[in-house]
Amino acid sequence: MEKKLNILFYIMLVLAGCLLITNALAQDNLSRTVTLSVKQKKIAEILTIIGEKGKFYFSYSNDVIKTDSVVSIVSSGQTIKSLLDELFHGRVDYKESPGYIILRPTPYRLTLVPDTLAGPGNVYYISGYVYDDFTGKKLYNASVYEKNSLESTLTDQNGYFQLKIKANGMITLNVSKELYRDTSINFLNNVNVSIKSREYYYSADAANSKSDRSWLGRMFLSSGQKIQNLNLGGYLSTVPVQTSLLPSLGSHGMMSGQIVNNFSLNILGGYNGGVNGVELGGLFNINKQEVKYVQAAGLFNIVGGNSKGVQLAGINNNDQKNIEGIQAAGIYNMVKDSLKGVQLAGIFNHVRNSKGIQAAGIYNYTRKNNKGFSIAGIANVTGNDASGMQMAGIFNKARVIKGVSFAMVNIADTLDGYGIGLLNISRNGYAKIEVYSNEITTTNIAFKSGNAKLYSIISGGVNFTDKHVYYSTGFGLGHDFIFNNNMSLSAEGSTHLLLAKGWKNQNQINRVSALLNFRAGSKVSFFAGPSFNVYTNYGHHPGDGDIQQIIKNKPGLIDWGNRTKGWIGWSAGITIL
Q: Which residues form the signal peptide (predicted)?
C-alpha cells in the first residue's frame, strides 16, 4: 500500500512539474530563443514569423507602432526580446499576456537614482530621484512602487520620492511613466530570508479600460490614481481582500487600480483592478476589468471588462464589455457589448447584443442583434435583427424581425418573422386596403398589415340597407397560402363589435373566413369566400333588440340559447395592394 502511495505521489509530482513548465513557457515568451533568417521583409511580416515560431501573437496598434519598414535580420539563438530591441531600436516596450506579446511605444528612457536606504529592523525608508535619461531633467508624476508590499508613490515636481517599505529579503523598486520604458532596481538587506514574490501580469483589457474615465471615475478617483493608471497601464496582481472608505482611502492606496481582489468591501465606494469573488459597496463600485461572481452596490456598479455572475445596483449597472448572468438595477442597465443571461431594470436596458431575457418598465434598446426575449412596458428597439421574441405595451422596432414581435405597433425594414399588433409596418410586408361587403354589414373597409405568414386586420363597417342602422368595428389575424403569383387563399379569424343606438351595446361576432384571392393587376385583386359566425349578446341595452332581430333572420341559424347564435355567412370585395 505504501509503495502504491509513493508511486502516486511521484506521478502527481511529475504532472505538477509539467504544468509549471508549460505555464512558464506560456508566460515567458520574451526569453525564448529563435532561429531566424529573413531578407528585405516588412517588420509586420517578421513579427508574424516570430509569432508562428513561438506559437503566440503580437498585439499592437498600427497607428503608433510603425511596422512597414523593410529590414533584414539573421538570428541563430537570440532571445525574442533582443530581436525586438534590434527591430525597434529600443523604442518599444513589451508586455506579456497569455498567448500574446503586447507592444507599446516607449520612445524615452528614465533612470532611478536612490538617495537613501535606511530603517530599523525590517522597515526601510527609500528615497531618491527619477531622471530623463537623455535630458537629465527630473521627472514629475512618475510611479515608484514595490510590487510585493503594494507600497507606491508619485514623484513630486522635483522628481523626488520617498517610500516606507516593510520587507524581508530583496526589495525591488519599480518605476513607470507613460511613454517611458519601465525600469527597476534591487536593494539587498542583511536578512537572508526567502520571500514569495507577488505575481504580476499584464492585461490589455485593464490597460484600455474606460471605467476610470466614466463620470463616476472622474469624480471620485484621486489625481494620483489617474496618473498611476497612465503609468502602470494594464499591470495587475491578485490580493485576497480589500477594504476602503472611498477609492482614494483604501487598504491598497494608489495601487488599488492594479489589484484584483477576491473580496472587496467598500463602505461608501471602492476602486479595483477587478474582482474574482464578491464585492459589496455601500454606494458604488468601480472596476477596471473583469468582475465575478457577485457584485452589489447601493447606487452604481461600473465595470471596465466582462461581468459574470450576479450584479445588483439601486440605480445603475454600467458594463463596458459583456455580461453573463443576472443583472438588475432600480433604474437602468448599460452593457456596451453582449448580454447572455437576464437583465432587469425599473426603467430601461441598453445593450449591444442580447441572447437572454430583457425586462424593463419602460423600454429595452438593443443596438445590434436580439436573439432572446425582450419585454417592456412601452417599447423594444433593436438596431439590426430581432430573431427572438419581443413584447411591448406600445411598439417594437427592429431593422429585421425574424422572430415574434408583439405590440400595438411593430416597425421593421424587413419583416421575416411574425408581427402581432394593430399595425405591422415594414418595407417588404403588407399594406393592403380592402373594400368589401358581407351578410352583416353592407359596406366595409379594412387595413391589413404584416406578411403572408401573419397579418393583422383592422376593420369597420356599416349597414345602410336595413331600416335598423348599425355599425361594426373589428380586429383580426390572417395567414395567406400562396399558390402562385395570381392566386392565394386567406385564412382569417376576427372579432367584431356590433353597435346600434350608441356605444353601450355588448354585441359581438367572432368570425372565421376562407377567402380565395385573384390578382387582376399589379395593384388590384378580388376576393370572395365563406365564413362561419358566432354571435353573442352580453347585455340588454337600447338597440340590442334591433340587432338580435337581424341575426334571428339569418338562414341556417344555429341556436345556442337566448344570447348565442351561429350561422354560415360570406364576404366579397376588392383589395388595393
A: 1-26
pLDDT for residue 1: 47
pLDDT for res 135: 85
Unique residue bearing C-alpha cell 528612457 = 109
75 and 142 in a common domain: no
CB 458 within 8 Å of CB 473: no
* Domain boundary, last residue among 426, 454, 486: 426
343-372 b/e (C-beta count within 10 Å ≥ 16 → b): bbbebbbbbbbbbbbbbbebbbbbbebbbb
pLDDT of residue 121: 65
Rg (CA), the chain: 36
- Note if the bond before 160 is cis, omega within 30 degrees: no
Contacts of 387 (CB under 8 A, 6+ apart): 369, 370, 371, 402, 403, 417
- Give the neighbor-by-neighbor strand order of the sheet with 110-118: 110-118, 123-132, 160-166
CA distance 98 to 548: 80
pLDDT at 190 (0 to 100): 46
pLDDT for residue 16: 40
pTM value is 0.71
**β pairing state of 507-519 and 524-537:** antiparallel
Backbone angles phi, psi at 201, to 5 degrees: -140, 165
**Which CATH number fits the domain that encloses residue 80?**
3.55.50.60
Asked if residue 9 belongs to a domain, the reply is no
CA 270 remoteness from chain centre: 23
Q: Do the domain assignments include residue 482?
A: yes
Residues 309 and 352 occupy one common structural domain: yes
How many domains are contained in the chain?
A: 4
Q: How many Å apart are CA 398 and CA 390, to the nearest integer? A: 10
Q: Which domain holds residue 275?
A: 207-426
For residue 427, which phi and psi values (nearest 5 degrees)?
-70, -35
Residue showing cell 494608489: 254
Q: CATH no. for residue 547? A: 2.40.160.20
Clarify whether residues 559 and 545 are in a common domain: yes
Q: Which residues of the chain have pLDDT under 50?
A: 1-5, 7-27, 190-197, 542
- One domain for residues 564 and 487: yes
In sequence order, what DSSP letters do the residues of 79-118 get, joined into one string?
Answer: EHHHHHHHHHTT-EEEEEETTEEEEEE--B-EEEEEEEEE
Report the distance separating Cα 349 and Cα 367, nearest Å.
11
Q: Please check whether residue 339 is in contact with residue 328, taking contact to mean a CB–CB distance below 8 angstroms.
A: no
Query: Which residue, 41, 74, 105, sits at the end of a domain?
Result: 105
Cell of 352: 449591444
What per-residue confidence (pLDDT) applies to 200? 63
For residues 259 and 243, is the Cβ–Cβ distance under 8 A?
A: no
340 and 312, same structural domain?
yes
